[in-house]
Design a protein that fits this description.
389 residues, alpha+beta, eight-stranded antiparallel β-sheet, six-stranded mixed β-sheet, 7 helices, 26 strands, 37% strand, flat, binds guanosine-5'-diphosphate, binds magnesium ion
């Protein structure tokens, strides 16, 4: 029998972000190794984290790697996203529900385009706390060079409202820590201490009606359909009745797990798998929402404040006008939508504007919800719902 999950410490969701090849996955593996040695985690090797998006037997795309570990004071779910597009889909939309992030910057390369884009997008989606890992600090004998990179990173963070002067910047080597070098093992310990102390415990809406955006759907032979994701708000227990919005059906939760451990009750912030009674596998998809029955109503129309990314940030070079139809990433859903800019008519890259949107299908919407707009594989905008009609 599996060991039940025992909630002894507060749970937080964090993730690594930053430019490709700056060492996010190596650092993630190193963190699990350091904590496994402390006895509060299980070592997850690099190649178990860094799997390319894989098609599972039933066509499920796995595009986020989660690992779990504990420090002395907290339980963390840590997300390491394999590719840049995964950041946009999962972080920008808030689907990853990060309470804080570790920004990984190679001390050898400094700030690169995706470093800046991830910081911008983290700000847009409300990730309020960033800790910096100046990685590959083993690779340069030149401390003054690292000092310059540190200044540059603090400056970037300040530009995006993160108070770059007070953000912890820790010089680490994920690679050397993974190899067991004591100096660099200590650097990863110092990074974890910075995360523990600098990222505050977020407010959890435990009393709100239960809601979980579906990230993945799996079938467990002989048991039924399982949906996975992070609980956005409320709590859910085995035996609770739920509604699956998008699939238009009701069901009962007959099983509940977090990282393979059964649990009695899942709560806001937890990363969980829910076993749903009598739900056909093909009826549920990523983008659907599991919620307390009657607690949310799906809608197609809303107004929003949208920031149109500048070309420098990877966005468009030309303005957007009414009738523009990008893809909207809302929670875990990906849906086309029509933009109406009203009297203003056009929005130039770099501008923030008010828009009315009509989506191609109904999704649960509410004021305050964040979303991203994408077109042809790039992010063109990031916004917040202001009203639903
Ligand atoms: P990601 O794309 O950000 O996940 O980067 P990876 O973790 O895949 O690392 C990219 C490359 O950088 C690999 O060849 C790693 O071995 C190397 N690397 C990662 N961390 C370090 C480090 O701390 N020091 C050095 N010298 N190389 C590193
Ligand atoms: Mg990686």
């Amino acid at each position: 029998p599996k060991t039940a999950y025992v909630r002894t410490k507060p749970h937080l969701n964090i993730g690594t972000m930053g430019h490709v090849d700056h060492g996010k996955t190596t650092l993630t593996a190193a963190i699990t190794k350091v904590l496994a040695e402390r006895g509060t985690g299980t070592f997850v090797p690099f190649d178990r984290i860094d799997r390319a998006p894989e098609e599972a037997a039933r066509g499920i795309t796995i595009n986020i790697a989660h690992v779990e570990y504990e420090t002395d004071t907290r339980h963390y779910a840590h997300i390491d996203m394999p590719g840049h597009a995964d950041y946009v889909k999962n972080m920008v939309t808030g689907a990853a529900q990060l309470d804080g992030a570790i920004l990984v910057v190679s001390a050898l390369d400094g700030i690169m385009p995706q470093t800046a884009e991830h910081v911008l997008l983290a700000r847009q989606v409300g990730v309020d706390h960033i800790v910096v890992a100046l990685n590959k600090a083993d690779g340069t004998g030149d401390e003054e060079l690292i000092d310059l990179v540190e200044l540059e990173v603090r400056d970037l963070l300040t530009q995006h409202g993160y108070g770059g002067d007070s953000v912890p910047v820790v010089r680490v080597s994920g690679l050397r820590a993974l190899e067991g070098d004591p100096r660099w093992t200590a650097s990863v310990e110092a990074l974890l201490d910075a995360v523990d102390t600098y990222v505050p415990m977020p407010e959890r809406y435990l009393d709100a009606p239960f809601l979980l955006p579906v990230e993945n759907v799996l079938t467990i032979t002989g048991r039924g359909t399982v949906v996975t994701g992070a609980v956005e708000r409320g709590t859910v227990r085995i035996g609770d009745r739920v509604e699956v919005l998008g699939a238009d059906l009701e069901s009962v939760v007959t099983g509940l797990e977090t990282f393979g451990k059964p649990m009695e009750e899942a709560q806001a912030g937890d990363n969980v798998a829910l076993l749903l009674r009598g739900v056909p596998r093909d009826a549920v998809r990523r983008g659907h929402v599991v919620a307390a029955p009657g607690s949310v109503v799906p809608r197609r129309r809303f107004s929003a404040r949208v920031y149109v990314l500048s070309a420098r940030e990877g966005g468009r070079t030309t303005p957007v006008s009414s009738g523009y139809r990008p893809q909207f990433y809302i929670r875990t859903a990906d849906v086309v939508g029509d933009i109406d800019l009203g009297e203003v008519g056009v929005a130039r890259p770099g501008e923030t504007v008010t828009v009315n949107v009509e989506l191609g299908r109904e999704v649960p919407l509410e004021a305050g919800l964040g979303f991203a707009m994408r077109e042809g594989g790039r992010t063109v905008g990031a916004g917040t719902v202001t009203a639903v009609s």
